[in-house]
Amino acid sequence: MNELENIEIFGRRIFFLNPAFVIRKEIFTSLQDNEYEAYIIDTYHEAKNIMRHNPNSILFINVDAQIPMNAWYNFVRSFEKEDVLRSINIYIMSERIKQSDKLLFEAAPEVAGEIIAMDDTLENLTERFSKILTDLNAKGKRKYVRANLIQDTDSALFWNYGTKMHQLKLLDISSVGMSVRVPNQIGNIVAANTVLKDITIRLGTSQFVVEAVVFAVKNDADKIIWILLLLPNTANKIKNSIKNYIYEKNQDSILRSIDNDEPDNDDYTKLNYYNLATKKKVDNSPSENNLSKETPPYNL
């Protein structure tokens, strides 16, 4: 499957770098509710490594904090150096950016569109994000975000049959269903379309009692897999708790993917993109005040 086919089916991952409070509380929560695959990156030190593992993603950057505006501009422009980083769709968010800097960012080839003004109304912000994500097919054909739980030791499904409670391994889960591994000795007890009552799902420290229908039974070598769908009357509170667990597991997986990568400790105030863009003269002469012997002046 090529990249375009992959996007068509699975959409794009969405990342918010250094997001403001309104993004975390309102926009991000709304995206979760609407089954977008969205993540938060707290610091620019992690951002490029994460993007390298997630080509063709969407990256929203809040440039109002963490590093100076010129450093953020240099950070964004430096994406031109790598093919995988050039595949990222970058959008800039700001509440207090100067008009001159706004024009610089919007003219940068790495920035996909106009600055998102964070001092706008929540209604307008929601509409703006929705249009961007729709235009970039962020959702794809996939309706629900799911978490892979094969290596997860904090989740399980418990099913009462006869006089015995069986603990089954959850393989993955979404807000509407899950797949579970079932031992051969009980795997063929039920058939497709059977409704299982009083199932207990454990996700971390939370437990829920639900009902589910067996959508399909798959025989795979030494195991049997049940595909279960939660009944439509499952409480929204339970579905929201499942969504939160999915986000926590997927967010953790994103961060673990860069465990062996060197953090980005570049000093983006020293790159020359911003100075060139603003046509400022750069003093490249070495001095004790602005340059160490080991650090070359303003490398691009």
What's the story with the biggest beta sheet? 6 strands, antiparallel, barrel
Widest sheet, order of strands: 7-8-9-12-11-10
Q: What is the chains' assembly state?
A: single chain
Strand segment count: 12
**N-to-C order of helices and strands:** HEHEHEHHEHEHEEEEHEEEHH
- Beta-strand content estimate: 25-35%
Provide the residue-averaged pLDDT: 90
Helix content: 25-40%
Spans of at least 5 consecutive residues with low confidence? 281-300
Distance between the termini: 35 Å
Radius of gyration: 24 Å
Number of helices: 10
Shape: elongated
SS-derived structural category: alpha/beta
Describe the structure.
With 300 residues, this protein is of the alpha/beta class. 32% of the residues lie in helices and 26% in strands. It contains ten helices and twelve strands. It has a six-stranded antiparallel barrel with strand order 7-8-9-12-11-10. It has a five-stranded parallel beta sheet with strand order 2-1-3-4-5, sandwiched between helices. Strand 8 and strand 9 form a beta hairpin. The longest helix has 21 residues. The protein is elongated, with a radius of gyration of 24 Å. The two termini are 35 Å apart. The C terminus is likely disordered.
Compact description:
With 300 residues, this protein is of the alpha/beta class. The chain has helices at 3-10, 21-33, 44-53, 69-77, 83-86, 99-107, 122-135, 184-187, 236-256, 273-277, and strands at 14-17, 38-41, 58-62, 89-94, 116-117, 147-148, 155-161, 164-173, 177-182, 195-203, 206-220, 223-230. The strands form two sheets. Strands 7-8-9-12-11-10 form a six-stranded antiparallel beta barrel. Strands 2-1-3-4-5 form a five-stranded parallel β-sheet, sandwiched between helices.
